[in-house]
What does this fold into?
Amino acid sequence: MPAILGRLAVAGLACLAVAFATMAAIAAPPQHGLAIFGDLKYGPGFTHVDYVNPDAPKGGTLRLSAIGTFDSLNPFILKGTPAAGVGGRILDSFLYDSLFSRTSDEAFSSYGLVAKSAEVAEDQTWVIFNLRRAARWHDGVALTADDVVFSFNLLKQKGRPFYKLYFANVLKAEALGPYRVKFTFDQAGNRELPMIIAELPILPKHYWAHHDFTKTTLTPPLGSGPYLISAVNPGASITFERVADYWAKDVPIKRGLHNFDRIRFDYYRDATVALEAFKAHQYDLRIENTARAWARSYDFPALRAGLVKKVVLPTRDPAGMQGFAFNIRRAIFADPRVREALGYAFDFEWTNKNLFFGQYIRTRSYYENSPLASTGLPSAAERVLLEPLRDQIPPRVFTAEYAPPRTDGKGGLRANLRHAKQLLEQTGWQIRDGKLVNRKTGAPMAFEILLVQPAFERVVAPFVRNLKRLGIEASIRIVDTAQYIRRLDSFDFDMIVASWGETLSPGNEQREFWGSAAAERQGSRNLVGIENPAVDTLINKLIYAADRPALITATHALDRVLLWNHYVIPNWYFSGQRVAYWDKFAHPATIAPYEYKLIDVWWVDPKKAARLKAAATP
It folds into this structure.
């Protein structure tokens, strides 16, 4: 009898545990939006965001350019080169909706899209999403919790390796009903996980049951988003058509967006050809990334006549890091002193003056142009994080503020090269017969700088000449887009020009950028090949920060360690967005400060379009 009573007691406790767990799930209040720290800008009753025209007219065509080629409409796998606009990773897409969608006027907030609300455990160990019953695929089939669970499992198991790492802390996804889905996490305190899952691209289970997800395809896939693919000319163009009865057109986070009836991307061989096509009005809008072109290549009749507008849109986006990135998997770049030495051969001041018309600012942080960028010496709070890692990180993290080498901008690089030579000698390199060789093996220092944009050759060539003055044989190789992507995915390069975009709330993606687990995983964004336990520790401190000040402190500390390891030679940034467009558009007066997606919020002004057409008529 006592044994029976004991078993009954255990069973009773188990039932109570289940009951309490259920009550906890029910007790979490539904939220219309998610913010990693602080309050949401928009309340439960908001009707649209501030940077749109909620009554923007629909219609017209937006023609855009893309460089290179494409051979797939499946952006979720490593194979193939996906077409512009189809999305991939955790990115905006014309074709697919996500559970929640971010705003562009908050640091990191998102609001319900496919899901009308979310319930988050107090300790962030799970999140439940309540789906909108109105959500539909383009074929009219309802979008349900089964699609969400299917998408999570499919991407994690068969998608790009990125997904496996990005969702590493998500134990499981389960449908609690047709319109209710729960994600359970493997630990508490990761405030970003609910928001990461909220951005999961949702794929149709019933469609992929009859198609091979692991293969490239040029057959337009089924989606649920504001556009569908209406025409594909492989490698040359892709056209998206607005879904007139798009199910989410009146959902607050979507109202006023997606105003063009058609969006077409035409592919060009390189940026120079694309610019000439723009001048001939082969497409309508161009975001210019080349300072020289912006300064010297837009003086053409249509612009002088006012038919083309040329503007710089303000932005408060973090600039992130762009730089000459070393592949430290290569033996010649294994020593950070070698990497530091090569940085002295890059003359930014001369480059900015002579090639960029003084338009750029030198990058000094991986989180440039934001409060997350480290400055000065570590604060007391940063030292608390850094001191336990003292034997794993460069000593200068504690004693000096990082600053890239400078010159007078007149080509006087002798002092910098002299210092570089001293660093190289310390690491076993010496000059013999005008060449830098390894003192022990006699092997010369030679490497290739891999490029995909021919226009970048003029920027890299002076750097190569300066390296030659050190006895280093650096060569430039330009390859097409498909080959470039393949080589990056397999880390088959010596040095590249790489960039890592950042937000005001960095989090789990930092593992993908700098984490040891991503270093040898094909297709990851850890292009440098960083396997550093101190970096891993600081990434975790960042991810599990309890509040905004703790996040900033951890990011500052991580920034210092990345900088003083000399994983890249920092390049430059421009604090704005250069836009040239044929004057047929209108846009809201308010410009969002972060990640301003003008393609989403602009529209065709019929009067301007008619005027432009009349001007083009002989």
The radius of gyration is 26 Å. Residues 321-573 form a domain with the Dipeptide-binding Protein; domain 3 fold (CATH 3.10.105.10). Residues 2-27 form the longest helix (26 residues). The first strand starts at residue 33 and ends at 35.
